Fold each of these.
Amino acid sequence: MVKLLDGTGAGVVFDTNHALYENNVHYIDTIAAAGLKIHSLHISDYFKDENGVLDERHTLPGEGINDWNGILGALERAGYDGPLMYEISSRPRGHGGVIDAAVLAENMRKLSHYEM
């Protein structure tokens, strides 16, 4: 199927919240190895509750179980140079239920400096 996309400009929108049982770093490396380009990226985190059940609440990067330094490294290896679109829930964990501009700016700073 990937060969059918050659020369079409088609690519992938990768969402870090959808590889819940897998390793996002592995997925990104596999996409690049298949010759597909990641055109856009949705970023958020998720976690497991006390019973090990996954919660896709779309928390801020670094608040869940994603390996953000690994994900960023894989994106660099894949040559990704597109946007990082935050996809955050309207019901965030912590932060008093509200993510304001200061919290978001600090999260972006940490992410951009590999401080996750």
Amino acid sequence: MASVRNFNTRYYAFCGGTAGIGQAAAFALAEKGANIAVVGRTKDLGDQTVNILLSKGASSATFIKGDLSTVAGAQATAQAIQAWCPRLDGLVHSAMTAFSKKIVTSDGLEFAFALQYFARVIIDSLLLDHLAASKDGRIVHLAGAVPKSIIPDLDDLQFEKHSFSFWKSVLGTHNLGFMFLQEAATRWRNRPVSLNMICVPSTKTKSMSDPNMPFLMRVMGWFGTKPEIAAKNVVTFLEASSITDADRFGVMYDPKKLTVSQPGMDEGKAAKLWSITYNLAKEKGVELSAMRS
């Protein structure tokens, strides 16, 4: 990943790009002249971010208003990105959350599952052809290096049968993402796309200081690193002139190293989650043809 791409004719979308690590990564690519779209819920923050992106040198910048915690919002976001650009060179998911109690979305889904896993998969799948059209489309999911044992029950992903667990909910979504990546590495390998989950350190962001965040998480945020430092591996992955085949689908567990590893999740569970995800999206009215068996 030594040499870099030419950015003036490239298009990048940042879901959660109006704050934190996603915004920092967007700023870095703006300085290289990229065309950038940032997705968020608040228009004022979106407009502010667009103005900064343009001042930093972005060839173009736009704000897409989207609620990534709902199925309709995720689908609408993908459609808006498709309408914005002729092809997509990079897609970054940085929207994250953490609540000490269970919150259910309007779709009847547990909030962390909806935002940190389901919306990402919906958008990735709906934009797969758009990413492939660039001949080298790259997807980034921000994640945390959590123990592999922290996985919610795949038959009870919404915590309807078991008591809600912060650890299995919020942290477990990272492992769900690793499982999705592992299965995508097999099913999408013949497409000209890459998917990396990039683990980031504790970072001083607005979400990490949210009063609804568990106290321990807020403390970690207080002593965390700056967003622009946490975004370093994201930027490097997006700007590299090429990605080796071995590194196309993998996880960067260490924020201080550019080392891509395989997730090593249970193959049977990964395949089961893929099927569950496809069927759940269909149940909610979204056909994910990129995930069809």
